[in-house]
Specification:
The structure is a single chain. Among the domains are: about 1-65, no CATH class; about 80-175. Helix 4 (about 70-100) runs antiparallel to helix 9. It is mostly helical. About 80% of the residues lie in helices and about 0% in strands.
Length: about 500
């Protein structure tokens, strides 16, 4: 995990240059110094406009010099991540098309390396992998280890899926052309949804910037308009006004930098932010949830709240006593609330993982139409959130190989229609009751493509929701600042009246 840098870390120009060099670009120290000069000049201009004191303007300048270099770093990070996404997208597409034409991994890698630019870092990684595969004859798994060189540099599930397909095809054969089509359709969905997400991130970032500009403008012109219509009232000389204005500017800068950082993300991210252990714990928490025990806990917590209500009421602290009432009902139902939240999060993770597993099943069915065997083989490589349920399904299939219950009981507690539909298709293939198995597999692939799109959109929406809060935050900043200004105006008018 990347270590978070201290707030004032980028006051040192060398740290800015070092951060940018990690993304493969050169950034000279004098460029950072120039950024500092611009920040100081802007802080001085802002100090004059808002009539800040020397200390407040200095605080804005120092914090600005620490925060705004992060925007410069993010601009280089954006170029770096965009390049990585583009290279991986090209690599997956070209590798799969080449493998479809000639089912040899080394040939596919060489073809993919040729179409990437000479200065592309990925081209160097591919060439390193090719050299390893061609010259490491002593290694039993030289091809697999060579592909891992690429996977370690570009951590992307779709890239690993493409490598897995090629390795399986070279080892066990099968109808690899249909399998290639599966992955190519998944790549197309990924490209479309990611490009849409990138545009939406830019739009959200633009909205945040507009909101911040409007808030600062309103907070600047409000005291000026008051002074125009009431010349005897000038709140801009108040220390409270100066400190509040400086705080507003700093929070606005922080919001701007935060929104900019949220738009600078790794486009090759894996589907889940949870580790394998966290996914397994989350599923077991929902699956093995003990309502009786948790309800008893809720009762104990609620009784404690009821006791606090009685104590406060008898002591005459009625506001605190009435505050205990909603707390009582929340604690009384905390077991239901906790289960509902865990189940919702688990369903989100399953929604991301299920299309990945369904693609693996589809690939295995290209080799064999035995669904039971395909389910058993898929467990080892399955996402962690699905493994326990798949093991249960495998056990049920061994006991009832001809029954539809193992399929219909899979994840039924989550009530996800897309899972139920896909499992129904798998049962039809297994029982041979659905007609042409090849056509049914094609239907599963079409459904999987739709599920991949849903999974991508769901993952992207979670990130966009966080950016939406950054858009709302300026309203809170502006509202708080206007409240302070109006309070100062009221005090000023009252003081004049008393005088």
């Amino acid at each position: 995990m990347k270590r978070k840098q201290p707030f004032l870390y980028y006051l040192n120009p060398k740290n800015v240059s070092a951060a940018i060099e990690r993304y493969g670009y050169t950034y000279r120290i004098h460029n950072t110094v120039l950024v500092y000069v611009v920040v100081i000049a802007a802080s001085a201009a802002g100090g004059i406009l808002f009539q800040l004191g020397l200390l407040e303007a200095a605080a804005v300048a120092i914090c600005g010099m620490s925060m705004l270099p992060r925007v410069v770093i993010n601009s280089y990070k954006n170029m770096y991540e965009q390049k990585r996404f583009s290279d991986v997208n090209i690599y997956i597409e070209q590798t799969l098309y080449s493998f479809q034409k000639t089912p040899k991994i080394i040939s596919a890698l060489q073809d993919a390396g040729k179409i990437l630019p000479k200065d592309s870092p990925m081209r160097s990684v591919i060439e390193e992998a090719v050299r390893y595969i061609l010259h490491e004859y002593s290694e039993e798994n030289s091809i697999e280890d060579g592909l891992k060189i690429i996977e370690q540099n570009y951590r992307c599930q779709r890239l690993r899926d493409a490598h897995g397909l090629m390795l399986k095809t070279e080892r066990i054969g099968g109808d690899y052309e249909s399998s290639v089509k599966i992955l190519l359709s998944g790549r197309a969905v990924w490209e479309t949804e990611t490009c849409r997400f990138q545009k939406e991130c830019k739009n959200r970032q633009r909205m945040v910037n507009i909101a911040l500009t409007l808030v600062c403008s309103v907070c600047l012109f409000t005291p000026l308009m008051i002074s125009k219509f009431a010349p005897t009232v000038n709140i801009m000389t108040s220390n409270v006004y100066k400190i509040g204005t400086a705080a507003m500017i700093l929070i606005a800068m922080r919001t701007y930098v935060k929104a900019d950082g949220m738009a600078s993300i790794n486009w090759l991210r894996d589907e889940s932010a949870l580790t394998k252990e966290e996914q397994e714990q989350l599923y077991r928490k929902v699956k093995e949830y003990d309502f009786g025990r948790e309800k008893r806990k809720s009762m104990r917590y609620a009784m404690l709240s009821a006791g606090c209500f009685c104590a406060f009421f008898l002591a005459g602290w009625k506001p605190f006593a009435f505050l205990c009432i909603p707390v009582f009902f929340i604690l009384l139902n905390q077991h239901k609330i906790g289960y509902g939240l865990a189940k919702k999060r688990c369903a989100e993770e399953i929604g991301k993982a299920f299309p990945q597993w369904l693609m693996e099943i589809s690939l295995l069915l290209q080799v064999s139409e035995n669904v039971n065997a395909a389910v058993a083989k898929s467990i080892e490589e399955a996402p962690a959130i699905l493994k326990d349920a798949l093991k249960e399904m495998e056990s049920s299939l061994m006991e009832q190989p001809e029954s539809n219950e193992p399929y219909m009981n899979f994840m039924k507690e989550f009530g996800m229609l897309e899972i139920r539909s896909a499992m129904g298709m798998l049962y039809s293939i297994s029982s041979g009751r659905g007609g042409n198995a090849e056509l049914q597999i094609d239907e599963i692939l079409a459904k999987n493509t739709a599920l991949l799109g849903q999974s991508e959109r769901a993952s992207n929406e979670n990130r966009l929701a966080a950016m939406y809060w950054q858009f709302l935050f300026p309203s809170i900043i502006g509202g708080g600042k206007l409240l302070v200004d109006m309070t100062l105006v009221t005090i000023a008018f009252m003081s004049m009246k008393l005088y």
